[in-house]
Design goal:
Blueprint lengths: L14 E6 L4 E5 L21 E5 L7 H12 L10 E5 L2 E5 L3 E3 L4 E5 L5 E5 L6 E6 L9 E3 L4 E2 L5 E3 L11 E6 L3 H6 L21 E11 L2 E4 L7 E2 L6 E3 L7 E2 L2 E9 L14 E6 L1 E2 L2 E8 L6 E3 L3 E2 L2 E8 L11 E5 L4 E9 L3 E5 L7 E9 L5 E3 L7 E8 L4 E3 L5 H4 L8 E3 L2 E7 L9 E3 L2 E5 L3 E3 L5 E2 L3 H10 L21 H13 L5 H6 L24 H10 L4 E4 L2 E4 L2 E2 L3 E4 L9 H6 L7 E2 L12 H10 L2 E6 L26 E2 L3 E3 L12 E6 L1 H15 L4 E8 L4 E3 L1 H4 L25 E3 L1 H4 L7 H15 L6 E7 L5 H18 L4 E5 L2 H8 L2 H6 L2 E4 L3 E3 L2 E3 L9 H7 L7 H14 L4 E4 L8 H6 L12 H7 L3 E3 L8 E6 L3 E6 L6 E2 ...
Parallel strand pairs: 3-4, 4-7, 5-8, 6-9, 7-19, 8-19, 9-20, 18-21, 19-22, 20-23, 21-24, 22-25, 23-26, 25-27, 26-28, 27-29, 28-30, 29-31, 30-32, 31-33, 32-34, 33-35, 34-36, 35-37, 42-44, 44-48, 48-51, 51-52, 52-53, 53-56
Antiparallel strand pairs: 1-2, 1-38, 10-17, 11-16, 12-15, 13-14, 13-17, 14-15, 39-40, 40-41, 43-45, 46-47, 49-50, 54-55, 57-58, 58-59, 59-64, 60-63, 61-62, 61-64
């Protein structure tokens, strides 16, 4: 046995006899066995996987070369242990423009040493440097009721209603629902104020454990790791699900290198850079070891919900670059289960060692140090049970097991059945949620508070590590070596003179061993020799990047306004408008699964997917699959989700809550804004925000999608006062000396009317800032021809500001020679005035109708510049009823006056009237037709008068391509078609399917519409 293994001590069920330095026995309550955490449940050492290829340093971006090596190894056959091989990255600094992605089992990235191999991620994205990610692919399974009336936390034996469908070796899941009754028993349904919107709701805290059955006896089963909370039928029935994720990848690792995030030197709180070092999901039995992390804003290692049995060891994270506040610097983080962090050091972290929302557990942190800690460690999310903090030291801050109540929008109880063992912190909060879910602390140092189980306080005990003592008891000689550093705990408070002299000499000559020093003494046995290895540059594998880029370029398609229509590759663009979420949301898993909608500039640090930080390709796929043709984009109403309380108060700290609705401006790194982070600089772009818009535009362009970019968002400056208090334009939130009044003159101490001042383009302080920002919007998207620029969402601003916006656009176009698509989106009186101006009308490409409409009584058209929002006008002016005819009239009037401009309609009761928009000659009609020939021909058509001179039908046509007819009654009608051969179709308005009525017929004069019906669409296709 290795000498560094710790001495086995006796463990009674639930009680532990630890030995105090003075010999006095203490009884410690141990909630469960935590030792199943780590790579292969810590029963196997991390393997030294053989090297199979090397990558040497070159100038410039090395991401494609290393990714090629990863993909090459992924294509190899795995050995009997599931290992394919290791990519040995050579000495030097490797700059990466793109993240590295491991998506197959058995692939390892290894450096030559922490001081020899350095990977540096460049760019403005806030992603991870390395992703290790499988897929979510659950097998089909049955659901079996757990029959036990009550299972204590720490149980690994269950009784099923029937075990007929399970056997030893089966991978299963166990679900414990969070019911209304359980939530109420914990008093987490309402955290105060009589406002329950932040309280827990049923299904919010459902727990799901992934386990393997080790034995079956009758209806009794044993599983390979304990359940981390008490399951009581009083609060709902638990179930066993005979399913598992077959898309999980295993046996992957990152080791023996330094990885860094490049950042802007001008801003010490810069956040437009890489956030996470290593990010994992849908993985098991993986590892990160001997890696130094520098400058990351988020996490060094981020283990997401579907990670299990991962070991992170001998890692140091230092010099983070970010704001100081919520969702930042969560350095060593787990949302998964059976994950082990050992011998890790975090410097200047916010939450150094943390479990997040509903991490099923158990999870363990062993022999870890936080230096210069800026906030607490422990659980930072709701109900992450089964945590072990074992010999963890948090310098200058706290360790926390407690009810966090309304912190971070209703965290409530952050853990249960968790253990502090020989930990040190400024304050240790150890509370138990109830008598069945108890937390415990043994032999800890610091200020102690809570109703948890306390023992041995301010004492040192043996064994040094609870985790490794439990592991040795469980598996004996197979136990993984913990390299536990055993400090001398025998120093007496009343030494002899000789002993005192000896200790004094030691204090001068023998430095105190830190965890960082200790980990450097641990041997690293993996091979770092390049002898016999091929360099990836000498291996033919994968696509030829140059030829593929050429192929892609040859297939580029264009967006344009053709004959007054918005087109893509010559086809009329059709589909619905997607309006982004911009103020609400949650980060809880059940909200994400049921209610979340895509967004492109919403940011949830460390979490990726719809409702969090959306992956752009997924957003594009969603829009295409759901028949959207454009995304309406603008900045968020506020950045910090806490503001959904609609309070106007200044926040006492930077504990901002996600999801974050990003603003287009960069933070300055200076001062303190109203929500607690640094102030904005209105002259500098938020590089991440604009990169995300460009990425969407570029990815969406391949699918024919448009990006409507609203420069402003009027909602900030009218209506509720909370809309304004966090706005970057408010003087207290920026470094640019905007001269809006402070204190804010809230109307009725609640409402805000800031539009009059905001839209004053002649104000000497605001004018240059407005011009700079408008130009920023144009500059950032100047190379994307599928972007449509608009002045503002919800815009009812004054005519003079609309003119100023267009004049600024015109100046920019003249200077740059660029001509983006410009949409005039404002009230009708302002639109008519602008369009009557010959110079300003030239700037306008699209007439966007959304703030006025015709109704059955006439015209609903709020005036410009009256300091009221659209919905406020709706409350004071009768909106009226609209239909096909009213929508048709709105569009057709402008098409007759301005036939070369595109006209879009998103006004009252959109999207009901897509066919009216089409037949009036409008653009972006939300019709369900996908036929390429139909859309190509429609783009060339224009509004024509029907032969009867009445309103019995509407017609679009072009003698060269054909006609589209929309009938309003079933009387016989004739179409004066140009001579030629035609196919005539009836089109189902609801789904776009086409039925051939007459095929290849010759028409020489007016032709009767066959099988005519009222409210029917007919296509005369000229062939």
């Amino acid at each position: 046995m290795n000498k560094t293994r710790i001495i086995v001590m006796s463990l009674a069920l639930g009680l532990y006899t630890a030995t105090w330095a003075g010999g006095k026995p203490k009884k410690a309550f141990i909630p469960m066995d935590y030792s199943t955490c780590g790579y292969h449940a810590s029963e196997l050492s991390i393997p030294d996987v053989r090297n199979v290829v090397t990558v040497t340093k070159t100038q410039g971006d090395c991401s494609s070369r290393i990714q090629k090596a990863i993909d090459y190894v992924a294509s190899m056959k795995a050995d009997k242990n599931g290992h394919r091989g290791t990519i040995l990255i050579g000495e030097g600094t490797f700059y990466l423009e793109q993240p590295l992605r491991i998506s197959a089992s058995g692939v390892v990235l290894r450096g030559m040493g922490k001081n020899k191999t350095r990977l540096v991620k460049k760019g403005f994205d806030r992603e991870a440097l390395i992703y290790i990610e499988g897929k979510n692919s659950l097998t089909k399974g049955d659901t079996i009721k757990v029959a036990d009336k009550k299972l204590a936390a720490g149980s690994n034996k269950l009784t099923l209603a029937s075990a007929a469908k399970v056997k030893a070796g089966d991978r299963i899941m166990i679900l414990r629902p969070s019911t209304k009754e359980w939530i109420a028993a914990l008093k987490c349904d309402d955290f105060g104020g009589g406002l329950d919107y932040t309280g827990w709701k049923p299904t919010d805290i459902d727990m799901l454990w992934n386990r393997t059955i080790t034995s079956v006896e009758g209806n009794n089963i044993t599983i390979d790791a304990p359940l981390t909370m008490t399951i009581d039928q009083l609060y709902g029935n638990a179930s066993l699900i005979t399913s598992y994720n077959k898309g999980e990848i295993t046996e992957c690792g990152v080791e023996n290198m330094t990885i860094e995030s490049a950042h802007n030197d001008w801003n010490p709180k810069d956040e437009d850079h890489c956030w996470d070092g290593v990010w994992m999901n849908y993985t098991s039995d993986c590892w990160v070891r001997r890696v130094d992390f520098k400058h990351f804003a988020g996490s060094a290692v981020n283990l997401q919900k579907q990670t299990r049995r991962t070991t992170v060891e001998d890692c140091v994270a230092s010099e983070p670059v970010s704001e100081i506040g919520g969702w930042r610097r969560r350095v060593f983080l787990t949302r998964g289960e059976q994950n082990l962090f050992q011998r890790c050091v975090s410097k200047d972290g916010y939450h150094d060692f943390a479990a997040d929302y509903c991490a099923a557990g158990p999870n363990a942190f062993v022999q870890c140090d936080g230096e210069g800690s800026l906030s607490f460690s422990g659980s930072i999310g709701s109900w992450a049970p089964g945590l072990l903090f074992d010999v963890v030291n948090i310098e200058g801050n706290d360790l926390s097991f407690r009810n966090l109540e309304n912190w971070q929008m209703g965290t409530g109880w952050n853990t249960a059945n968790s253990m502090f063992w020989q930990c040190t912190a400024s304050t240790l909060f150890c509370y138990s949620p109830d008598k069945d879910n108890r937390c415990s602390a043994n032999a800890c140092w610091g200020t102690m508070t809570g109703n948890g189980e306390w023992s041995g306080s301010n004492d040192a005990v043996t064994p040094r590590s609870l985790f490794y003592d439990q592991l040795q008891k469980r598996v004996g000689e197979k136990a993984n070596n913990g390299f536990v550093y055993n400090r001398n705990i025998t120093a007496s408070s009343s030494p002899t003179i000789e002993v005192a002299q000896k200790l004094a000499l030691e204090s001068v000559t023998t430095p105190r061993v830190t965890i960082e020093m200790w980990m450097d003494s641990i041997p690293y046995t993996a091979n770092v020799s390049k002898n016999g290895l091929k360099d990836i540059d000498n291996i033919k594998f994968g696509r030829n990047n140059k030829s593929s880029a050429k192929d892609l370029h040859s297939k580029e398609k264009n967006f344009a306004i053709t004959d007054g229509h918005l087109t893509f590759d010559g086809k009329l663009i059709v589909g619905n408008r997607f309006a982004i979420p911009w103020w609400n949301g949650r980060t809880k898993d059940n909200f994400i699964l049921k209610s979340a909608k895509p967004a492109i500039t919403r940011f949830v640090p460390g979490r990726e997917g719809t409702g969090w930080t959306d992956r752009i390709d997924s957003v594009v796929t969603f829009l295409k699959d759901n028949d959207y043709c454009m995304l309406d984009q603008h900045y968020g109403l506020w950045y910090d989700l806490r503001r959904i309380d609609h309070e106007r108060v200044k926040r006492s700290d930077g504990e901002v809550s996600a999801p974050f609705y990003e603003q287009p401006f960069a933070r300055s790194g200076k001062g303190k804004a109203w929500e607690g982070l640094s102030k904005y600089d209105l002259t500098k772009p938020n590089e991440w925000y604009w990169q995300r818009e460009r990425e969407f535009a570029e990815t969406g362009a391949k699918e024919g999608l448009l990006l409507f970019n609203h420069n402003y968002f009027q909602h900030n400056i009218i209506e509720a006062g909370a809309h304004w208090v966090d706005s970057p334009w408010r003087p207290v939130n920026n470094i640019n000396n905007t001269n809006f009044p402070e204190p804010v003159p809230f109307a009725g101490d609640k409402r805000v009317f800031m539009a009059e001042q905001f839209y004053n383009e002649n104000d000497p302080a605001l004018r240059p800032l407005h011009k700079s920002y408008i130009r920023m919007c144009l500059d950032q998207l100047k190379d994307n021809d599928n972007v449509v620029q608009l002045i503002s969402e919800e815009y009812t601003g004054p005519l003079h500001f609309t003119r100023f916006w267009l004049q600024t656009v015109a100046e920019w176009e003249k200077e740059t020679g660029k001509h983006p698509i410009i949409a005039l989106s404002c009230t009708k009186d302002a639109q008519d005035s602008i369009l009557a101006d010959p110079e300003l009308s030239k700037v306008v490409d699209v007439i966007d109708i959304r703030y006025w409409h015709y109704n059955t009584d006439g015209l609903w058209a709020p005036p410009a510049g009256k300091n009221m929002a659209p919905r406020q006008f709706m409350r004071k002016m009768k909106v009226g009823k609209t239909g096909y005819k009213e929508a048709y009239k709105s569009v057709s009037e402008y098409k007759r006056l301005y036939p070369q401009k595109a006209v879009t309609f998103f006004a009252q009761q959109y999207p009901q009237y897509g066919w009216a928009i089409l037949m009036a000659g409008g653009s972006l009609p939300n019709i369900p037709v996908k036929d390429v020939k139909f859309l190509t021909d429609a783009a060339k058509m224009y509004v024509m008068a029907n032969d009867g001179g009445d309103d019995s039908y509407d017609i679009l046509g072009n003698p060269d391509v054909g006609y589209i007819v929309y009938t309003h009654n079933d009387r016989e009608q004739k179409v004066a078609a140009s001579p030629g051969k035609y196919n005539i179709y009836a089109i189902d308005k609801s789904n776009g399917t086409m039925k051939i009525l007459e095929k290849k017929i010759s028409i020489t004069s007016a032709h009767t519409i066959p099988q005519i019906k009222s409210e029917q669409v007919y296509w005369f296709e000229k062939i």
